[in-house]
Design brief:
heterotrimer; A alpha+beta (200); B alpha/beta (372); C mainly alpha (133); A: alpha+beta; Alpha-Beta Plaits; 3 domains; 7-stranded antiparallel sheet; 16% helix; 23% strand; B: alpha/beta; FAD/NAD(P)-binding domain; 2 domains; 5-stranded parallel sheet; 9 helices; 30% helix; globular
């Protein structure tokens, strides 16, 4: 159920925790029942989008947490390396060419659904790096330690801010790079910055 | 000064559909009068701080507020478009005259127009919800909350409960949090989330719970909203006693759907049909966006509630068709064909299923009209 | 209990909760009032409108029409699509009579000649004439 390899080692199983109901395996291209009911992707959803182990360990790579066919294609246009395959139908789910993706994160800022993350498993021996979209004020400072939140907004640990990419235009989406405990690479999807949350 | 304006095409509503219709017609060389009740063009776009989906032709990845600015500039600078803002259309009369009230420097003037073609892009109004305490201050329509925050920079309160997990409810929950308002919960009467999963996941990451199969039982408060009781509903949408949950909140935000604003079309005698999938009573219209009254076109939410991306494309078709009917669009078949293909693509996926069902129902009504 | 009896009961039992549920906020009409009327045999939207003023206020029924339709449908068993809506008449929004009167007086005085342009003080409207068609 966890896909082609030991995705669970990087927290994929934990990532998918929630009220998964046995026997609700969605057909390819359709979101799981759990996602439709709760907004939380199920393990089967995540297993379809998390890159193979050798790709994940090689360096930063984009993880498209996009599970539902909707009319949307800015990720395709944002990628300068052709790593997002052309859309036949605008409702198609994005398909990533892992060999071309270098985890630059342009798509993270472009995705209207804020559904793309860049993950570098094993950024150091003990940590992983995550680049995530963050549209709240204040933006964190480089070096700041912030709360690491999972897909339900629950605090699961701490994160150190490595870099803050501010968009060139005021209306863009900032991308925050954080370093987390290695096994939390596929668990942490948001941060809690002290000093409140105000829209970017 | 009730001089009668005689534009070739008059477009009512300067939202995404209306601006697209006006630009399409004006690009054909037709003189267009574009009218909107608000002080700036954009319709709902002026408060939509989220990025749009769709494809590049409909500004995918661009925030609604930016689309309003881009289209607004195009409209303002177009030599064939005259835009009257702060102008409320009051009615359509049998001689084809529309009356309007325009606010100028705190005063009002009464205007009339008798366009050769009319394109109605009046948008939609929010559906209300009936529950005890629904008139307490603090109970808002979602649109009002979005206007307060994103147009006027006013926080609606400190802690909100959102009703409705369609795209509007999900997006505004996110924007409430951006504004610094806590969101206690999103409740949704249907057993599944109606909006895009990406929007739902986005607010779950903020720690906001989404309670499906739940609805509002009651709003509490002496002088203003203090708390909200929600409860689980059965498959007949009836509340189940014993499942109540109470949330302290000073904002209750209703995002339970929209219904087309079609008063002018009713007045014009356009054939209407009740199609719940499209938001209620909607004007029958053909593939040229023309209603049952020749010369009157409709696009955007007024034609059936849908996404803004499709509203822009349908508006374009309506504008082209209005121009073509005046003999001003020789490439109509080709241009409208391209736009229709875009519209079909936008509606092709699972989220478009409801729209497709609604349009099929509307088509059946049309067949019955033609047969009868 | 038959469906009809059940509907009757809902109308009869309209109480405090329904009286705290506002259906037409412009004219302050509650769910309780509407249910009691339906229970008395008032089954058309037009009748409800005339008896309660629901839908005759500032918003001209944009808010309450939908709720009343659903309520009548539910309590009479007639599907919404078969219910007749009240007639839509101009004006769609409230307008001061003075605004119309002033315009009418102005039009008489000017007798159609040299009527000040609505966009006077800005630039002339290009929409007056028709270049095509």
């Amino acid at each position: 159920m966890f896909g082609p390899d030991d995705a669970s080692a990087a927290g994929v199983a934990a990532a998918g925790r929630g009220d998964t109901v046995a026997g609700t395996v969605a057909p390819a291209g359709a979101a799981s029942g759990q996602l439709r009911r709760t907004g939380l992707p199920a393990v089967e959803d995540l297993a379809r989008v998390i890159p193979p182990q050798e790709v994940r360990r090689r360096g930063p790579v984009a993880v498209f947490e996009c599970f539902e066919r909707i009319p949307c294609d800015p990720c395709y246009w944002s990628c300068k390396r052709g790593a997002v395959k052309p859309f036949g139908d605008i409702n198609d789910l994005p398909e990533v060419d892992w060999e071309r993706c270098n985890g630059c994160g342009l798509c993270v800022a472009a995705c209207p659904g804020l559904a793309i993350f860049v993950v570098h498993e094993g950024y150091t021996d003990t940590t992983s790096l995550i680049k995530l979209p963050y549209e709240f004020l204040p933006l964190p400072e480089v070096g700041q330690v912030v709360g690491a939140l999972d897909r339900e907004g629950t605090r699961v640990g701490e994160a150190r801010v490595v870099r803050v990419q501010k968009p060139r235009e005021k209306v863009g989406t900032p991308v925050v790079w954080i370093e987390v405990e290695r096994d939390l690479a596929h668990v942490v999807r948001n941060i809690a910055v002290a000093g409140g949350e105000r829209g970017e | 000064m009730a001089a009668v304006l005689n534009p070739q095409v008059m477009v009512v509503g300067a939202g995404p559909a209306g601006m697209s219709a006006a630009l399409a017609a004006a690009d054909c060389g037709v003189k267009v009068l574009l009218v909107d009740f608000f002080s700036q063009p954009g319709g709902q776009l002026v408060k939509q701080t989220h990025k749009f989906f769709g494809s590049r032709g409909q500004y995918a990845g661009v925030r609604g507020i930016e689309i309003a600015r881009i289209l607004g500039e195009k409209v303002r600078s177009h030599p064939h478009i005259e835009m009257l803002l702060d102008t409320q259309v009051l009615g359509y009369y049998p001689d084809g005259v529309l009356t309007m009230e325009r606010s100028v420097d705190g005063d009002s003037e009464y205007l009339k127009a008798r366009p050769r073609r009319l394109v109605v892009c009046a948008g939609a109004s929010e559906k209300p919800l009936a529950f005890p305490g629904n008139d307490l201050p603090g109970v808002y329509g979602a649109g009002a909350v979005q206007t307060l925050m994103n147009v006027h920079g006013v926080m609606p309160g400190r802690r909100a409960v959102m009703v409705g997990a369609g795209n509007i409810g999900l997006i505004i929950s996110y924007q409430l949090r951006q504004a610094g308002v806590e969101v206690a919960a999103v409740v949704e009467a249907a057993p599944v989330i109606g909006g895009y999963a990406v929007h739902a996941s986005k607010i779950r990451r903020l720690g906001i719970p989404i309670l499906t199969s739940h609805s509002v039982k009651e709003a509490h408060g002496e002088r203003e909203l203090e708390a909200v009781t929600v409860w689980r509903v059965d498959e007949r949408w009836q509340g189940i006693p014993g499942t109540e949950r109470r949330f302290e909140a000073d904002v209750l935000c209703l995002a339970v759907g929209l219904s087309p604003l079609a008063e002018l079309l009713w007045q014009a005698g356009c054939r209407m049909a009740y199609v719940p999938e499209l938001g209620g009573h909607v004007p029958w219209h053909d593939e040229h966006q023309q209603t049952s009254v020749p010369g009157i076109f409709v696009a955007g939410d007024a034609a059936g509630v849908e996404e803004a991306s499709s509203a822009m494309v349908a508006g374009r078709i309506a504008g082209l068709a209005a121009a073509a009917s005046l003999g001003a669009c020789p490439r109509y078949r080709e241009l409208a064909g391209e736009a229709r293909a875009q519209l079909e693509a936008l509606r092709a996926g699972p989220p478009g299923e409801k729209i497709r069902r609604g349009l099929t129902r509307l088509e059946e009504v049309g067949r019955r009209v033609r047969a009868g | 209990m038959s469906e009809a009896q059940e509907r009757e009961k809902i109308c009869q039992q309209a109480g405090a909760d329904q009286d705290r549920t506002v259906i037409c906020r412009c004219e302050d009409v509650t769910l309780g009032e509407i249910r009691r009327l339906i229970g008395e045999g008032v089954h058309t939207l037009d009748e409800i409108k005339r008896l309660t003023r629901a839908g005759m206020g500032l918003c001209q029924g944009r808010t309450c029409r939908h709720l009343i339709l659903q309520e009548v449908s539910r309590l009479t068993g007639v599907p919404v699509e078969e219910l007749t809506l009240p007639t839509f008449r101009p004006p769609t929004r409230p307008v001061k009579l003075g605004v119309i009167a002033r315009a009418a007086a102005g039009a008489r005085q000017d007798a159609g000649a040299g009527v000040p342009h609505p966009a006077a003080g800005r630039e002339a409207l290009p929409v007056g004439g028709e270049s095509r068609g």
